[in-house]
Structure formats: C-alpha cells, structure tokens
UniProtKB/TrEMBL annotation:
Keywords: Metal-binding, Molybdenum, Signal. Belongs to the bacterial solute-binding protein ModA family. Molybdate binds at residues 29, 57, 141, 168, 186. This is Molybdate ABC transporter, periplasmic molybdate-binding protein. GO terms for cellular component: outer membrane-bounded periplasmic space. It comes from Acinetobacter parvus DSM 16617 = CIP 108168.
Length: 252
C-alpha cells in the first residue's frame, strides 16, 4: 500500500516593522535562493519587509485561492499558476516562466545504489528500502517523478515502497535521515545537502519540462512594493547570478 507522509515546511520571515511588506508565496525548492535574494533586496530597500511563505506549490496555490494575503506566487510548475488564473486570483498577463530545473535521483552518501534511466533496467531491484518523492498527484516534483517512472514502466514495480511527502524539501530530509534509500528531487535541492549524493538524472524527455513561473497576484498588482520586488527578481543581474549559483537555469 502506498504510504503518504505529510511534513509541513512552510516558513515565514516576519518583521514587526511598520514598513511596507511583500508576501511572496514560493516553491520550497526556491527556499535558499529567495532567502538570499530577499536579504539583498531588504538591505537595498530598508523600508520594505519581504515575507517568504515557502512550501509545496500545490499547498500554496490552495492558500492563495482561499484568500491568503499574498502578493507574488512563484511556482515549481505551470499547472498551479494556470489553476490560479482560472480561479481569477492571478491575471494571465502577469505570469511568465523564469527558471528551469532538472529531476534527479538521490541516495544517502553511504549507500551505493546503481541507477540507469532505461526501461530494461530494474531500479526496484537495485536497493531494498523505500523511495521517496513528493505527492505524485499534486506536488510538482512528485508529478514530474510520476511521469518519469511511468514512462520507464517502473511505477508498478515500486508498489508499496513509495513514500510521498508534502514537498521536495521533505523528500530531501527523508533521504538525509536514511528513512528512504532513494529519493526523487530537483538537482538544485540535491546540491544543497552534504548528506546525499546524486546517483542519476532523468532525461528531460521522460517528464514535462520543469518550469518555474512567477506572477503577481491580483492583490500584488495593487502593491507598489510587490511590483518593484517582482521586477527586481526578473531583471536584476545580481539576482540572476544567485539563481545560477544555486544551480537553476533560465527559461528560454
């Protein structure tokens, strides 16, 4: 039976300042990058407080739909931005792709697990423990993973051994702790941990392109600070270098 484990990692950086604030709802895989970007922006704009709400794009989109106080939505896939456009929480003209990523398989450093992204390779027999990934019907990383596993005809062979979590960072944590022998995450997440190693990369033709779109919410379009910060993320050369440093690529 498929196991589902939910581990919330939503985070907020909240100041008591009376300055203007920008509430950015963003995919967990952007946590380190956006924290660094927000610190730089706040240093340059000391009257502005950037509030980061980080978690699975699916969960954050539902919060925005429910009326959460939000200015910018930065998703790990196109589906959840399109969902909010349909729900009239984002205007289509406001949303555009900005980043791309890669889907990789990780294991704890101490394990030696073989991996070949080929249909004739039995990955399920390459290790005895469980494999972890995001919720495969909602969390972007899990959705990409499901596509890859299905295209390789591996999904059925892992029946009863897949642990689904509420975000890609939760998946990373499970593998770091050795609670899962392998995990499917983004390359950028794997690179931040010294406790795991990348054992393979899924070719891009096995899953939909991993695209990160950013959009002002309808509330954000009325917030001059949010408009300014959104422009900063999209156009500032220093920000571009930070994304590159953390392993992201730019959408073309």
């Amino acid at each position: 039976m498929k196991k589902t484990i939910l581990v919330s990692i939503a985070l907020c950086s909240i100041s008591s300042s009376n300055a203007g604030s920008v509430k950015l709802f963003a995919a967990a895989s952007l946590s380190n990058t956006l924290t660094e970007i927000a610190q730089i922006y706040e240093k340059q704009n000391p009257k502005t407080n950037i509030v980061l709400i980080l978690g699975a794009s699916s969960s954050l989109a539902k919060q925005v739909e429910a009326g959460a106080n939000s200015d910018i939505f930065f998703s790990a896939d196109l589906d959840w931005v399109n969902y909010l456009i349909k729900k009239k929480k984002i205007q289509a003209h406001s949303a555009h792709p900005i980043l791309t990523n890669e889907l990789v398989v990780i294991s704890p450093q101490y394990l030696n697990v073989k991996f070949k992204p080929q249909a004739d390779f039995s990955f399920a027999k390459a290790f005895k423990g469980r494999m972890c990934t995001g919720l495969m019907d909602s969390v972007p990383a899990g959705k990409y993973a499901k596509h890859a596993l299905m295209n390789l005809k591996w999904l059925e062979s892992f029946k009863g051994r897949i642990v689904e979590t509420d975000s890609v960072r939760s998946t990373l944590t499970f593998v770091e702790r050795g609670e899962c022998d392998t995990g499917i995450v983004y390359k950028t997440d794997a690179l931040i941990s010294k406790k795991v190693k990348i054992i393979g990369i899924f070719p891009r033709n096995l899953h939909p392109a991993i695209i990160y779109p950013i959009a002002l919410t309808k509330q954000g379009e009325k917030n001059s600070e949010a408009i300014h910060f959104n422009k900063f993320i999209n156009t500032n050369p220093q920000v571009k270098n930070i994304f590159i440093k953390h392993g992201f690529h730019f959408y073309k």
